[in-house]
Amino acid sequence: MSLGRRVCSEVAAGRVGEPCLRLVSRPPTSLLAMTAPSVVGEVGDPMETIQPTGDLVVAVAAPGRVLTPSSSNLHIWVVGLGAIFGLYFALAIPPSQGIDETAHFLRTWLVSSGDLIADERIDPATNVNHAGGVIDRCVIDYIFGYTAAAARPDNYDAGSYWSETTPCDPQVRSWVIADASSNYSPFSYAPQAATVALLRAVGAPLPISFFGGRLAGLLSYLVIVGSAVRLAPRGKWVFAVVALIPMAVMSAATYNSDSMANALAILTVALVTRAVLNPRATTTTIVVLATAMVILPLVKQPYLPLVMLIWLVPGRLLGGGRRAIITKLGICGVTGFFSLVWWKIGFPDTPPSIFKADVDHIAQLKFVIGHPIEFVKVMGRTVAAGAQQSFVLRGMVGSFGMGRFAGRSNDVVAPLLALVLATGVLVAAYQREGGARRTELAPRRSAMYLVVPIATTAAGVVAVFLLMYMIWAPVGALMVNELQGRYFIPLLSVPVLSLTLRRDELRPGRPGWWIIATVVSLLLFAVGKTLLVFY
Hints:
Helix content: 40-55%
Mean pLDDT: 84
Shape: globular
Strand order of the largest sheet: 1-4-3-2
Radius of gyration: 25 Å
């Protein structure tokens, strides 16, 4: 932390690039024996020369450091890069070509109409119960038209997104099946649905409503992850890398539930870090943290285990003693309760066969409980299998198009080199948190800081595998064929707590140019891949 209150910014002295004087109160000499110019600064700030002058210390910020990526300004880099590349993806990815975007856009439109819980009807042709809703015919034609176009080898025409629409008549509506997204709560699409509802209310054309919703989702994502990076006293580089993985940015720029899940998971970990390490953390931090924990599993159920992180929060912020324990139990209970409530009222009563003909959810769950070792083998085979490995590992970095013509998308996921780069830059971000151990920590608390984040991550991974196994795999299947790497993005930042809460930062103040450069190179690859696949 700074030794006192800043009284001028780096640019307050005049033009950008000129030195700026920062006045900070001198601490007691015993605390910082500064008898000659030395180098100190905020943790993560660009290093500054400190000149002692009586009761004040004058810090001269080096010219050009304002734009150098560091812990103190990393949130600006995250929001800036996310906005630049996210805007491109939001406008360049054709409607329906985000991951599962057709189903998620239909669900968003229904939520914007007030249909918070999906309607159910029996298909007279098959006598099977389906979930969905009644939607304007023009909306159905618009989104399914671009879905069908994906299977053709022709280039998409970006201009057509804004002009080739069926005239919308509120009286012409049709029932549409949306089983794939019907179990998602309105929280998954809150920013998009609110924006679409507003634009519909003012009579905006359909393309304006569609792309307006996309931009609202991107904006909300950037606000949440930018705030998380800014508020976290440690782990900023890990949060930044996870937030800017191409798959995360593309998800934020299209219609799906991953965007909100990714953002809330990063915010949850950041606020836990702040609650433990920042002595200025207040009740507001806990309220926002608890809210994020409650909403996260309502967005996607496998991330319910992240509520376990509440046990890392110091008891002093929750009243101390028995009151703190009761509060933590209450947060866990409320989170679990609302998740179960939504599972009961929000999940439509549709047969498992609509996903796979030979699936039985309950029988599969019983199999897993009765054969835990075999289920662990299933997880290992899923990751190791050749074809499935592409979606689990490389798909975590990027996935392009839905049902795109094979000649235009010979490989829908990121190449192995992109996976290697993404893994390397994430490891480098983690290494920044691996400094010397905090010797003042009691052994019991240090052990808790180590075990809880790792156990939470492991529980989240198992939950993802289990849910996908129950939904998509027949009983006793050897692997999960529909598992995708993007499901693990919300878990990537959780283990950093085992470092930030137990260790000091390694060489604080280092700029992160090469980390930023690697992230940008991955995003540029995604830009190029998008152009090749669609245009």
